[in-house]
Amino acid sequence: MESPARNEIHNESALLEALAELAAENADIAVLWLYGSRATGHATAISDIDLAIAFERHDESAWEHRLRPETLALEWAQSLELPSSQLSIVDINTAPIHLALNIIKADRVLYVRDPSRLAREENRISSIWEIDHLHHQRQAE
Questions:
Q1: What is the pTM of this model?
Q2: CA-to-CA distance for 68 and 89, rounded, in angstroms?
Q3: pLDDT (average), residues 67-84
Q4: Can you give the residue ranges of the Polymerase beta nucleotidyltransferase domain (predicted)?
């Protein structure tokens, strides 16, 4: 018989695999990251699942663009039979730079359709943070 902790690991692993499969089924998803307490190994039984996505398409209206992560989170939660409050998705291209940097630093990529897109996102975020950091350093001097 498996210990509860081991069973929890299997469930977590299966859940992350299911999320990667959902991402692979959606042609609009280029990269899927896990971040937050589940990515750092500090999750508790009540921790939600924090995901970030780099979307392929950016031609929708501003309203659709804003709602896309929330709508997808609701769809995926329903598909995985999770409470809607258990799944949180952000668009990495609209996330505040400090959050985007934490996402890529967590280094928990669950799905990649295009490895060059992953590299571009990581470079873009790092560059923006570096420029912003240097700007604030100069202002402080």
A1: 0.83
A2: 9
A3: 95
A4: 18-115
Tokens representing 119 are: 């590299």
Q: How far apart are CA 35 and CA 96, in angstroms?
A: 14
Q: Is residue 14 helix, strand or coil? A: helix
Domains annotated on the chain, with CATH: 4-140 (3.30.460.10)
The DSSP line for 61-126 is -HHHHHHHHHHHHHHHHHHTT--GGGEEEEETTTS-HHHHHHHHHHT-EEEES-HHHHHHHHHHHH
In contact, 72 and 82? CB cutoff 8 Å:
no
pLDDT, position 129:
79
Dist. CA 12–CA 38, nearest whole Å: 9
Q: Are 114 and 30 in contact (CB under 8 A)?
A: yes
Distance CA 90, CA 54 (A): 9
141's tokens: 């001097």
Q: In the block, which residue shows the tokens 């990269």?
A: 31
